[in-house]
TrEMBL record:
Molecular function, one GO term: lyase activity
Biological classification of the source: Bacteria, Pseudomonadati, Pseudomonadota, Gammaproteobacteria, Alteromonadales
Keywords, in A-Z order: Lyase
Pfam families assigned: DPRP
Protein origin, superkingdom: Bacteria
Organism expressing this protein natively: Aliidiomarina halalkaliphila
Protein name: Cryptochrome/photolyase family protein
PANTHER family the UniProt entry points to: SLR1343 PROTEIN
Length: 518
């Protein structure tokens, strides 16, 4: 062979230009299952199984056209370290060129960059040909970052990026104007679910991955979560990923925006697409998803309206691309920030769901069952609780990075550290996403089944979110001073009677003394 081409586990992009080469047997494609990947955080078992199953399916398909070397987890030759395995393989084959696609994670980028290759081996890094933007593009959309003395990142807005990228790509644009006459349909969206509204059945696959599960058992890989390895529900091929997308378009898209913030005990994925795993490991491309959804809207304007489609396109074209640009611009310092100096440990129920708080119990239990929670469960239930109670951002990040099927650091970290925990001090979000129990009550039906009383602010049965919310506001008054987006809430708090405030703070302190008891 003349060249080794490394394919990382989240680079299953079958349309990559690499594979269009007729390399005439001169290229060896290399894929590896390694303990460095199963062990850098404790993952959900379904996540490891889905990754390895998808990698194996991809290698099998690639192997029909090209030469592939696939190192399995239990192979005797496996040193379980990317650099060590590559060095060994280069020596073994005598190949003088190593190529890889741009990794999405800083961790892997650094590892490859620091790899000590013999001078005779040429190294080449190519695009993964997946994203719409380039990873160092943030300054292109926010030129002030380049010139300003203040490099803190304050004042960046996703909306500013989003409007530019809509114009640049032409998605949902007509003659330079947004289709539907406005950029944002949030005011029409984000409703709670009525009891009359039926919820589609999620499409679940039944992939038999018992053979991989046995390897995990034999190798004593530590995991969290529940799993039936004879019926893994996640897509592990491009064909299944496309089926999931079609299912979403048919049954969920007509109501996607409307209920994208709803919480409900009647379903665990509601009108969400559940395609983040397929997207993040590149079995689906963002362009194809956006174009397919826009095509469905154009063909079916009576059933799918612009508010639903714009709400969806905003997530992929807007948020997904944006968080990646933030990640690559601000790493590695980004991960070290801890704006509020929070240092509590996560309560035990994040690993069991055994809590009397119904909203938390449901969000965590379904995360353990399915390796999935939708955005509002992640942001306004489990994330909200962790921020209100002052849990260390490192603890929170490790939990989110482990438990979710779609969790890869470039997308998990900005969402958790930035959007959910405000640990970056406001680079990603202009104000912290926190709420009392009222928001959870307004958006869903958990409170009616809860041990705690949503209406009560103090007392043994009062909803913990209610007092913890005000405790958080009160202890950060000085921090929020000067943030216009927080001024209304601060005034509200300060106008309450001193006795009332004292009682609420006292109640919150009782909860904080023993969070594990909630
Ligand atoms: P849908 O609601 O159907 O949305 C469609 C697609 O839009 C998603 O598949 C996803 O690709 C994209 N999207 C939506 N919101 C975001 C967002 N905020 N950032 C980036 N892409 C977005 N997403 C991940 O892919 N990996 C993560 O590790 C991850 N961690 C998160 C942690 C926290 C604390 C929060 C608040 C959000 C996190 N998200 C993460 C974003 C979002 O919650 C998930 O993308 C979404 O729930 C995936 O489910 P879905 O495919 O059904 O999404
Ligand atoms: Fe959650 Fe409070 Fe409602 Fe219980 S009462 S479900 S803890 S918001």
């Amino acid at each position: 062979y003349r060249e080794i081409r490394l394919i990382l586990g989240d680079q299953l992009n079958a349309s990559h230009s690499w594979y269009k080469d007729d390399d005439e047997g001169r290229v060896l494609y290399v894929m590896m299952e390694m303990r460095q990947e199963t062990d850098y955080v404790v993952h959900h078992r379904q996540k490891i199984l889905a990754f390895f199953a998808a990698m194996r399916a991809f290698a099998d398909a690639l192997g029909t056209l090209h030469d592939v070397f696939y190192l399995r987890l239990d192979s005797d030759e496996n040193q379980h370290d990317l650099s060590a395995n590559l060095t060994w393989l280069l020596e073994l084959t005598g190949v003088k060129k190593l190529s890889y696609q741009e990794p999405d994670e800083y961790r892997l980028e650094s590892q490859l960059a620091q790899m000590d290759l013999p001078t005779s081996v040429q190294r080449s890094c190519v695009s993964s040909e997946h994203f719409i933007t380039q990873r160092d593009d943030l300054v292109r959309y926010f030129p002030q970052l380049d010139s300003a003395d203040d490099k803190s990142g304050k004042g960046l807005l996703m909306e500013t990026f989003y409007r530019q990228i809509r114009k640049q790509t032409g998605y949902l644009m007509d003659n330079g104007k947004p289709i539907g006459g406005k950029w944002n349909f949030d005011s029409e969206n984000r409703k709670s679910l009525s009891n009359q509204q039926s919820i589609p059945e999620p499409l679940l696959f039944k992939n038999d991955v018992c053979h991989i599960d046995t390897t995990l058992k034999n190798m004593k890989i530590r995991t969290i979560g529940n799993c039936n390895p004879s019926e893994l529900l996640w897509p592990i091929s491009r064909r299944q990923s496309r089926e999931l997308l079609e299912h979403f378009i048919r049954y969920c898209l007509p109501n996607f925006g409307r209920y994208q913030d709803a919480l409900s005990e009647r379903g665990w994925s509601l009108f969400h697409a559940r395609i983040s795993f397929s997207l993040n490991i590149k079995m689906l491309s963002p362009q194809e998803v956006i174009e397919r959804v826009i095509r469905a809207y154009e063909k079916n304007p009576d059933t799918i309206n612009i508010a639903q489609v714009e709400g969806f396109v905003r997530q992929i074209l807007g948020w997904r691309e944006y968080v990646r640009l933030i990640y690559w611009h601000f790493m590695p310092d980004y991960k070290q920030t801890n704006y509020f100096n929070h240092n509590r440990k996560l309560p035990h129920y994040y690993w069991t769901g055994d809590t009397k708080m119904r909203c938390m119990q449901q969000s965590i239990r379904q995360s353990l069952d399915y390796a999935y929670a939708h955005h509002i469960q992640r942001l306004m239930v489990t994330g909200n609780f962790a921020l209100l109670t002052g849990v260390s951002p490192d603890e929170v990040n490790a939990w989110y990075l482990g438990i979710y099927i779609d969790a890869i650091e470039w997308v998990e970290l900005p969402n958790t550290h930035g959007m959910s925990q405000f640990a970056d001090g406001g680079i990603l979000a202009s104000k912290p996403y926190v709420s009392s129990g009222n928001y959870i009550h307004k958006m869903g039906d958990h409170c009616r089944n809860c041990h705690y009383d949503i209406k009560a602010k103090t007392g043994d049965n009062s909803c913990p979110f209610n007092s913890l919310y005000w405790h958080y506001i009160d202890r950060n008054l000085a921090v929020f001073e000067g943030n216009p987006r927080m001024s209304m809430i601060i005034n509200q708090w300060q106008q309450r009677a001193p006795d009332d405030r004292a009682a609420v703070l006292k109640q919150a302190n009782i909860w904080l003394l023993d969070l594990n008891a909630l």
